């Protein structure tokens, strides 16, 4: 019997992360494929979750989110970016950023609408756009600098453009969009009267002299931007699935209407714990970023030593490397063979692309792991590299 799955979802089968994680388990390779840390977040946050459980906060939380988390998100936006949002009408807590993306896209897009996004893109973007019955239009960010191609971006817009789905800092490339690049996106959104939905889950994980600039802070953009983030990446608690969105009250209300029929509510005792984490001092935020920057440097040096060409990321958990110098001609096949070659697992960037040729030999590695894990991965990569 043929699959009963609807046609627009048939291109989205088992994720590459599941395949590569299973490969790592089978071969004993170090899994640098999936982006989750192997250490826990701040002790204050963990203790707050335990206290919430012991305090009986284990039933349905309020639909929009628990009051202290709504307040903490609003305070966070003003503290870091000078953005004032009303916690009662302009904030919505979701089951991770992935649900926030789905709720907004499903709320704002009709079948036939077009969604502009950059590729490579996080895999849920394409699936969510398909679920909405909308059409994906892309502009390619090309290795090694992943700069915005304004001409290509302009051709992705049309009179059917409903929204732009933007991710900065960017997964999988580690790119942090510059103010000039964001202004190009903003100008095109205003020209085509489109919403901008920004996925900013890596907002605090930026390195060197990079600066995260929220789209909503650009002139004239607060009224047409929905900003999405999460506690999972910033505070190393990806399994808690506590995300949120902020923006104009009418857009938040639209997303809330859809969200209630997706998960209804979730992450009950973890919501007050993330509220505690959001209020921690600047030193905590700074240490999270500086620790990751050191891990980035460790892995990038190892990848270069093994013969790969590396694009030095300025944010996120990830680094993209080109395996062509080692003779790779197909990233997926190279990734499948890497556990045997080097005892390390990465993910082919081509799975995040419509334009497969643009990422033909590119591999993404995650560096959000303990130093000893990265050191062992580095040793294995060096042993497998050019002699």
Describe the structure.
- With 387 residues, the protein is α/β, with parallel strands linked by helices.
- The chain folds into two domains: 7-41 and 283-384, Aspartate Aminotransferase, domain 1; 43-280, Type I PLP-dependent aspartate aminotransferase-like (Major domain) (Aspartate Aminotransferase, domain 2, 3-Layer(aba) Sandwich), CATH 3.40.640.10.
- 40% of the residues lie in helices and 15% in strands.
- The protein has 13 helices and 13 strands.
- A hairpin with a 6-residue loop joins strand 9 and strand 10.
- Helix 11 packs parallel to helix 13.
- The longest helix has 24 residues, at 282-305.
- The radius of gyration is 20 Å and the shape is globular.
Give the secondary structure arrangement, pairings included.
Layout: H1 16-27, E1 30-31, H2 43-54, H3 67-81, E2 91-94, H4 96-108, E3 114-119, H5 123-131, E4 135-140, H6 150-156, E5 161-167, H7 179-191, E6 195-199, E7 225-230, H8 231-234, E8 243-246, H9 249-259, H10 270-278, H11 282-305, E9 309-311, E10 318-322, H12 331-342, E11 344-345, E12 347-348, E13 362-366, H13 371-384
CATH class of the largest domain: Alpha Beta
Mean pLDDT: 96
Domain unit count: 2
Give the N-terminus to C-terminus distance in angstroms. Answer: 52 Å
Helix content: 40-55%
Uncertain runs:
none
CATH topology of the largest domain: Aspartate Aminotransferase, domain 2
By CATH, the architecture of the largest domain is named 3-Layer(aba) Sandwich
Query: Can you count the helices?
Result: 13
Radius of gyration over all CA atoms, rounded:
20 Å
Task: Describe the sheet with the most strands.
Answer: 7 strands, mixed
Portion in beta strands: 5-15%
Q: If strands are numbered along the chain, what order do they take across the biggest sheet?
A: 2-8-7-6-5-3-4
Principal-axes geometry comes out as globular
Oligomer: single chain
